[in-house]
């Protein structure tokens, strides 16, 4: 009986890596928004907003890649 | 359409019925945590999920040329066996839905087919080593991988956001959940609607209505997508309650982590050619998310009952499928009609029993248990 252990290990490693990365980046985005809401003005607010924007953009890219994987016509 | 005999017509209707049960059985996979955390209102959630399931059915053109991915010998399969296998799968799906247990629709279909082929064509028709490699092993590995990923991600999300204001964190993750849950729905639509299309297409090919290597006609894609979408929209509220409330109390960061883990596991394994159960992956993710938040309570009794349901899904669906196959084999057309009528009667029975303690959009989050007997006598009156 042939079991493709290396493919199985790859599924495990990629899934773990992607999940942790997306959730951590999204959390940083939420933290950025929260910090921006704490202080109304100043450079710190702009920085926090930029952090949030970048993080959500990164998540959106991952979602886009997910849709690309789902739809075979795009490959 | 001279080739469409009574049996082929019955198989097509049965396949669509299975697709429908598949839809309402699996709504919970994508939407249970979003409904539980309040990220989406229950009716909106099932509507989004249903529409994305239909969209998913049309998006993917990768045809399931073999119904089972080599688990049974497709050359030996007849429409009668497919019919018997589908009956086994449908009845098992309805029974587990009644109990509010998220069992795997894919395992029910595989089990039903294995049983029917075993009885119809003998044990040589079933490739047991494929069953182990393609069904059993991923069934053990995938929920564990999803659980570990969701657990680690949840732990980090709470660690990082510990100092931020809780209401803002909750709100942020709720919005994220809408995207993550939608992606699970879309992936589910492309996978599961394909299975039914494969079954119908294979039946049409074996009856001579379609040429070999033909893809599914547009009406097959449309009706399969519609059946699964409609099932999803009607919502398996009993299973949504078990997955959203029964396993653990879910908060929005956990829901987001769980759905992200489910999507990651489903997409990576589909990419590498592993057939796996969306249901089991989603359950593993939710359990992992429950463990990742410190002090979160995990109801191990519920988890244990679910694991037991997973273990017996394949053999029980195989038993029903085998039984139906033997009736069809010996009874011919009359046997087919008898099996169809008995299955219909049993299905109606399940629906009637479920009415005693209905779970619907308005009460899905009220409790964490699905029982067969109503606890509040007033509930019976409002159910009718």
TrEMBL record, chain A:
UniProt keywords, alphabetically: Membrane, Transmembrane, Transmembrane helix
Residue ranges crossing the lipid bilayer per the database entry: 12-33, 54-71
Domain of life: Bacteria
Keyword Membrane belongs to the record: yes
Stated name of the protein: Uncharacterized protein
Species assigned in the record: Streptomyces griseofuscus
Phylogenetic lineage: Bacteria, Bacillati, Actinomycetota, Actinomycetes, Kitasatosporales
UniProtKB/TrEMBL annotation, chain B:
Gene Ontology MF terms in the entry: phosphate transmembrane transporter activity
Protein species of origin: Streptomyces griseofuscus
Family in the record: Belongs to the inorganic phosphate transporter (PiT) (TC 2.A.20) family.
Keywords, alphabetical: Membrane, Phosphate transport, Transmembrane, Transmembrane helix, Transport
Biased segments, Polar residues type: 372-384
Superkingdom field: Bacteria
Protein's name in the database: Phosphate transporter
InterPro entries reported in the protein's UniProt record: Phos_transporter
GO BP, one annotated term: phosphate ion transmembrane transport
